Amino acid sequence: MTEFAAPRKTLGQNFLQDPNIIAKIVGSLSVQPSDIVLEIGPGRGALTELILPLAAHLHLVEFDRDLVEYWRARNNPRLTVHGVDVLKFDFATVLNQVDRKIKVIGNLPYNISSPVLFHLMPYADRIDSQIVMLQKEVVERMASKPGSKQYGRLSVMLQQRYHIELLFGVPPTAFFPAPKVDSAIARLTPLTEIAHPVSDHEDFTALVKQAFSMRRKTLRNNLKPMLSTSQIEAIDIDPSARSETLSVGQFAALANVYSSVKP
Ligand code: SAM
């Protein structure tokens, strides 16, 4: 049996140990024999070992050098190991080699979970579905609707591009060592028909960030550096509304106005 080093806190290493939950997570990816799967942070392989026999090819992105060595030593022709920080990983290196959409799965370190989701966004049209384990509260924010307490930048940015489902919760006891927070599994399915297209994704990102820069302030005040009151009113949005009440479609409309008027 392999002797692993002690879990590294700095790399968010909380390894899954509950076989029922592991099977349920992998089951939610619905791996088909022709599928190319990319797993972020395989760790000691709780999910990896179940996916490997099911998929046509499995790409692993792992930052822990010992674990990279462990996976490389498997010498499996259906396994490619990318020993790199996922936030610096160029997903195009995998996507350029394949002729089909890929599936992505990851039990992500909580401190980098939102940055990883944003890093993956430009490739959404090449992804079939993403199954991710995140802090439960983060999944709730991702899936929340306008007017709710958790609705914010993360909800708007992700819902413009994905259909988001909270599949099930995962208690701390399912891991070793046990994290201090509750976790949940989310499925992000890229929208094939984008209901609210944006003309420039960077402008959309900048506008949503600016709109939520100060909570409880009006849209007019938050968006002052980008749009005038009359520009907001011109698309039938109330400038005295608060950002947390606006729909994804309204944010997309504001961003498109900004793209057309910005210097
Ligand atoms: N998938 C395994 C499981 O469910 O038991 C491990 C999950 S553990 C929460 C997170 C994994 O991500 C660890 O293997 C850790 O080494 C890896 N990791 C942490 N930071 C990373 C990064 N920046 N890039 C790639 N992998 C990272």
From TrEMBL:
Residues 21-192 form the Ribosomal RNA adenine methylase transferase N-terminal domain. S-adenosyl-L-methionine binds at N14, L16, G41, E62, D85, N107. GO terms for cellular component: cytosol. Its EC number is 2.1.1.182. Keywords: Cytoplasm, Methyltransferase, RNA-binding, rRNA processing, S-adenosyl-L-methionine, Transferase. It holds the Pfam family RrnaAD. It catalyses: adenosine(1518)/adenosine(1519) in 16S rRNA + 4 S-adenosyl-L-methionine = N(6)-dimethyladenosine(1518)/N(6)-dimethyladenosine(1519) in 16S rRNA + 4 S-adenosyl-L-homocysteine + 4 H(+). The keyword Cytoplasm applies. GO terms for molecular function: 16S rRNA (adenine(1518)-N(6)/adenine(1519)-N(6))-dimethyltransferase activity; RNA binding. InterPro entries: KsgA/Erm, rRNA_Ade_diMease-like_C, rRNA_Ade_Mease_Trfase_CS, rRNA_Ade_methylase_Trfase_N, rRNA_adenine_dimethylase, SAM-dependent_MTases_sf. Coiled coil: none annotated. It is found in: Cytoplasm. Belongs to the class I-like SAM-binding methyltransferase superfamily. rRNA adenine N(6)-methyltransferase family. RsmA subfamily. Specifically dimethylates two adjacent adenosines (A1518 and A1519) in the loop of a conserved hairpin near the 3'-end of 16S rRNA in the 30S particle. May play a critical role in biogenesis of 30S subunits. This is Ribosomal RNA small subunit methyltransferase A. It comes from Arenicella xantha.
